[in-house]
TrEMBL record:
GO molecular function: deoxyguanosine kinase activity
EC number: 2.7.1.113
Deoxynucleoside kinase domain ranges (all copies): 6-204
InterPro entries: DCK/DGK, Deoxyribonucleoside_kinase, DNK_dom, P-loop_NTPase
Keywords recorded for this protein, A-Z: Kinase, Transferase
Protein name: Deoxyguanosine kinase
Amino acid sequence: MKTPFITIEGPIGVGKTSLAKAIAKRYQFHCLQEIVEENPFLGKFYNNIDEWSFQTEMFFLCNRFKQLEDIHNNFLSHGKPVVADYNIFKNLIFANKTLNGNKHNKYLKIYNILTEDMPEPSFVIYLHASLDTLLKRISKRARTIENNIDPQYLNDISNDYEIFIDRWEKEHPLIPVIKIDGDSLDFVKNDEDLMLIFQQLQEHLTKGEKKQ
């Protein structure tokens, strides 16, 4: 099996970074965290999506491309496992939601060029939760730039994730997706819930080892 590369995905506030850190600690994997608050356009984006969507999405794309290039060169290619709190395919989910017409076409061209030789994950952990749960967790972490998130926008993104993940599974049958219900499992507060996720994770890691 190739060096384990786990990506965690799901809508805003679902707990991707918390789970990535927990996995990294347990398995001694390198933890790759996406750049969020450093995006200079994000606060403006939440205030005016139409005006600032292209700048916001391009910043995320370029930074994620650089991060993935670095972990490939410095970790994966040297046999060092990585867990990331995002998969770069999330760029398509958000771009499809926020960009239109010529800007969307330009974005897709750049996305396809940058991601054509990016490392693929061994498997994806997909976290999903209800809108109420997402709003509570976003409020709890109290990021200033998220103060103006429209609940309808968040709900739409959650629905878009569901549609995208279903399609992605069909298009990538060799990359398993572990689906975790964030409403029924609170792996941040409950160690037993976290252990259940570790058990599923271990099963996939063991399967990968047997394929060697």
